[in-house]
Amino acid sequence: MTDIQAAFSDPQFVARYTEGPRRFVPGYDAMQSMTAILLAESVPGDGQVLVLGAGGGLELKAFAQAHPGWRFDGVDPSAAMLALAGQTLGPLAPRARLHQGYIDDAPEGPFDGATCLLTLHFVDVAERRRIASEVHRRLKPRAPFVVAHLSAPDGEEERPLWLSRYSAFLAASGVEPEQAAAARNAVTNHLEILAPAQDEVILREAGFSDPTLFYTGFAFRGWVAYA
Whole-number mean pLDDT of the chain? Predict the structure, then answer.
């Protein structure tokens, strides 16, 4: 477990979590809105959606508010983050079943759609492949899978440039320069960032078709693909 992953069980970090994504992820709110739009192209009005990395509950709340008939299964390894998700959902909580654990702890489905936002950069390539395959197995035919995470070109000059831009975004968002620099170092040293082409290959190898880029925010990228 990396220091970044361990933070999700730290009470002080969890208490402040809902303030963070909008400052640390370029276009965070728009990315969530776009995700809901992509899901809604295929997910019926009474659909069931699998949400991996659901701790905190921000995307669950956004999806639930946008689509009152949807129900959700949210999965996250951190009990503290799942408790926060319940608080974030408030009166929407009865529409979401929360499961502590990993993809193997998710219900079998089949689901009408699935998401995995800001999560896959915490695991290595082999585990990403396994997660993608297990999600695919739990989806109905042609159901959408939306992913978004750190993904940047791996050239010797390109990746440092994108990470520098990301650090500059943090500073522009009000993050203290020292904290912005520390965030860049943590991303560089503790997370396994793939090139966009590698991320697309993982989706295809898991059985997904038509992986299409829909979101780019400096060092972050997002795709929709279909089971």
Answer: 91
